Amino acid sequence: MVDKYLALMAAGTIIRILLAPFFGHSWDMYVWIESGGLAARGVNVYEIRELTDFPWGFYAYPPLWLYWLTAVSALATNITTLEIKVALIKAPIILTDILSAILLYRLARLYSLENSKARKITLLFYLNPISILISSVWGMFDSIAVLLTLAASYLLLKKRIIYSGLALALGTAAKIYPSLLLIPFSIYLAAEKKRWRELAYLISSFALGILIAALPYIRSIPAMLDKLLFHFTNIGQFTYWVALSNFSNTSLISLLSITSFILLCLVIVNRCLQYRSESLMFLLYAVNGILLAFLATSSKVNVQYITWVLPFLLLLLTIKPHREMMFNLVAVIILGISFIVSGQFSLALFDLKNLGRITPQTGTPLSSISSVIIVASGIAAGTRFISLLFNILQIRKTSFWNTTRVTVIGLVVIMAVSLSIFPSPKGVTLPYAPLRVGVLSGVEAFFHQEGDMGVPLFKQQFDLTHLAITVSPEIVSNPVHTDFSKNSRFKLTTTEWNDEMMSRLVSRLHENGVKVLLGLYLKSYAYEIHFGYHGYNATWLTQNHPYLTDKEGNIYFQFVLKETNKTYADFFAGNALEIAERMGFDGFYIMGVDWGRGVEIRESIRALLSSLKERNVRYPVFLEIDALTSNNGYSEYFNLADYLVVRTDPWVRRVKENLIGNYTIESFRTALDNVARNALNTSSKVLFTVHTIEVVEGWITPAVELQREVDEFSSVAGVEGYSIYTVSRYIPYMLRVEKPLSPYSP
After folding, report:
1. All structural domains of the chain
2. Minimal CA–CA distance to 647: which of 629, 666, 620, 621?
3. Is residue 459 packed enough to be buried (19+ CB in 10 Å), middle (13-18) or exposed (0-12)?
4. How far apart are CA 308 and CA 140, in angstroms?
5. pLDDT tens by residue, 258-307
6. Range 105-109 contact pairs with CB under 8 angstroms and sequence separation of 24 or more
7. Each residue of 326-369: pLDDT tens digit?
């Protein structure tokens, strides 16, 4: 029997070692390698401000893992083989998996489980596909924190309080979550014979351990905290919030999740105190309860977080079998495996050849199905975490929140969301207007540099007359450094899109009958945190010419550029026209203006448009305006801009600014009608906007709502067409341009 047990443990180790060199999460592993390299060269990664070089995430963790990455980078300077370097990075993760299994066995024995059951728990943990996939395929270091939480629990029960606190501190120095266990540990000591002195030892040793672990970065504590707070603003992928975040304000979600967690902690502690006479069981229930409360409520839950609670749940279920809880745990594990496997099929997420990039979806049936599974498994896992929490709480002897009811409710919610998102079989119908413009938040939202660059698929998916490829002002202000990808609001890779590559893309789009506009997002910086960290920083403005911008990123083109003795508007317009001429663009699309700023901003845009018009007789200018907040100031741009694009986004505005105003389709229709009527006697044409999805900001307009908006806004007299915000590979429904039998008539 011993030989069989050891053979299975050895098999788990061999599997990990064989997988480790050849796989790695394409973005996380890139961050590990880059962060280690930077730290080894003496760069403080917590002080780095140019986070837009790490669009899907940057080093936003405590420093313990960073020390290992630094050591690997410093010691492996002569190692050029990527696979060897990846295997070295994963070595402590695999080692801690082994040590966690051994420690779980010893913890099980401490709970008076017989030898055979303790071994069974060990094997269930160590051979679990999730444990293997996270450590050896993904390369995420949660295993280190798991080991240290197990060690802290074991040492606490052995009455080695100071060492327990230090272990918990080291775990927190790897990942933040072990700090949550201070709650059950403290209650355990306080509830059992009021061991106040030992409680003081626990808290003091924890604080001392944190201080020692962070000592090399002690002067960067504020910057470190700023990076760590990223986790409270980002949305995870393995939770129901991933769906709800597309229909609600992110700050509101954060408030709800934090409040819910705090309230649940109080409930859990109160409920677990019924086991006060059984101190071992109290601690086990409380640890599971606190961790599950976080997983059930937090807006930042990813699939690797399963490993946090897995050993503790396996121990509890072995001591006190619970059929429904076991079902929920198995369901979470299956959903986690589905998520990871689908990520590989959909995005080649764990191929080392994609290091530093998230591969665009291919549009194949397998890729589409995998993408649906990713979203569905994440949402379903969120409901399972809630079910597990209710299992722990045992709210009723026969809980209303049993497996069947939660499943049915979950299916109803998913069906309701699906019905609101997905349209009729023919898709969302758009009119065959003379002008049909698509706006990209980044060139990589649809295109790639290989082969046909994705243009045929783009043409097949979108029947557009114009496409705006939007970039930051850096492209125009500092044309020597024209990386169109780095200077966009959304990017998938670290690949540079230079002039030559962009000219090639523009030519391909021209061959397919699409005119290409140079989109100018007029903010000196634009950062968004939702699914990762996206945006840009126009350093030419923010660092070298701060007098041309303000802290909100607004740009003042009417100001004089000191080194040229002419206005920034003249300098900018001249450069923009030169870029358009050189690269074959067909016009300009101006957006991102904060019209609510009033007179100064209107003067700024008027100066820019005037400079463009003085120099430009060839390239049309599209200007996005906000008719609700500009107080009719848009009228001064008639005849300066060829096209006024009226931002008509009632649903998006309600999601993003639901605490500010009540935005209705009727109010936007009235604003659009006013602009169209005032433009009748001018040379300017009017368009409305169609807001489908924005991956950067994390919203999707439900198809039913979108169809209502399109129908209302396209019926306004004098409207020449529309702009779609945004066109990308990720729109979950088909946009169908309906060609009429007779010429288009708004």
Report:
1. 2-417 (no CATH), 435-738 (3.20.20.80)
2. 629
3. middle
4. 12
5. 899 999 998 888 887 776 667 788 899 999 999 999 999 998 899 999 99
6. 106/154, 107/150, 107/153, 107/154, 107/157, 107/311, 107/315, 108/315, 108/318
7. 999 999 999 999 999 998 888 788 999 888 887 766 656 666 67
